[in-house]
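User: I'm new to structure prediction. If I give you an amino acid sequence, what do you actually give back? Let's try with this one:
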Amino acid sequence: TQQLADARGLVEQSVAELETARGKLQAILDNMSAGVIVFDRDRRIDSVNAGATRILRVPLSAHLGRGLAEVPGLEGFDAALTRRFDQIESGSELGDRDHWQDSFELTTAPERDPLTLLVRGAPLPAGGQGGAARLVVFDDITELVSAQRAEAWGEVARRLAHEIKNPLTPIQLSAERIQHR
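Assistant: Good question. You get back a string of structure tokens that encode the predicted 3D arrangement of the chain. For your 181 residues, that looks like this:
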């Protein structure tokens, strides 16, 4: 009975330590600016953080236990994620990496501007039979992409103005010389 009591005490201590670690991990995830979604081995949403809800503008925690394709507006995102994970699992990805990174343009609703997401995905270690759980981490880079486009168009406009101005300078100098004579 003493051994049983000691074993029970160790189990209770381990459970308490696990709950503490889980609480710390959840606090870290909740305070990340990036979105995090964990899928179970059946590709259902297992857990999400507040960043995912904020970025996607969809209450993902209300869809726990369901597939991402069942969330209105995220069907295309689900198809893209599935395709990328399938490429990794089939080995058609270059190299022997077990993770991937890609950018996706996502429109969650017709009246909203599209989002540009930088998405990273990796399978989680399998704890038994069947496929592995999956981790997806993403950031909203819409403003960054927009700023890069604006900068690129500004550079095009500057070069175009230079090209237009460049041939006009000799013409202007010739006209001034003729007027002076």
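You can read the tokens as a compact description of the fold. Here is one thing that stands out. Residues 116 and 141 are 6 Å apart (CA to CA).
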